[in-house]
Amino acid sequence: MEHKMFGRNGPKIGAGEVAKILVDKKDALILDCAAGTGHVGQQLYQRGFHNLHALDACQAMLDEAAKKNIYSKLICAFLGPNRLDINDDTYDCVILVSAFIAGAHVKDNCFEELIRIVKPGMVKIITFKILYKRNYHTKI
User: Fold this and answer.
1) pLDDT tens per residue, the chain (140 residues)?
2) Are strands 91-97 and 118-127 parallel, antiparallel or unpaired?
3) What's the order of all strands across the beta sheet hosting 118-127?
4) I want to staple 39 with a disulfide (CB 3.0 to 4.6 A). Which of 7, 11, 22, 81 is the partner?
């Protein structure tokens, strides 16, 4: 199901935004959240970002992502209010693409945790297509 409803533009757009913001920081440590099989990671890797970690709640998806040989670390965990087994201020960038969709396991209660694991002043990129009315903007 990954990206079939939305086409393949989300990963390209998200990675493009990371590349614009981190233009001089190709060594940035980036966490691809709700990574699935690694479409966003592939786009980041093609843009010269090779310090990538993937997080997804489904081990089978991470197993597929591992076959791409672009991630140095795979983390199987749910995004939510739960504390991730990741130190504070670890990542230069956290990216989520197409994770906030009807019926998905990712909800707006993960924002505080994502902010915790990103270094102060660094990049958080969260993209979602508005298909139904949700007030995510009030949580960000």
Assistant:
1) 344 444 567 788 888 889 998 999 999 999 998 899 999 999 999 999 999 999 998 999 999 999 999 999 999 998 877 899 999 999 999 998 766 555 556 666 778 888 899 998 876 666 544 444 444 444 44
2) parallel
3) 71-76, 52-56, 30-33, 91-97, 118-127
4) 11
CA distance 140 to 84: 18
Comparing CA positions, the residue from 28, 33, 25, 14 lying closest to residue 91 is 28
Tokens 């980036």 -> residue: 30
91-128 as b/e: b if 16+ CB within 10 A: bbbbbbbbbbbeeeebbbebbebbeebbeeebbbbbbb
The 8 Å CB, 24+ separation contacts for 107-113 are: 107/79, 107/80, 108/134, 108/136, 108/139, 109/80, 109/81, 109/139, 110/79, 110/80, 110/81, 111/139, 111/140, 112/81, 113/79, 113/80, 113/81, 113/82, 113/83, 113/84
Spatial contact of 125 and 17, defined as CB atoms under 8 Å apart: yes
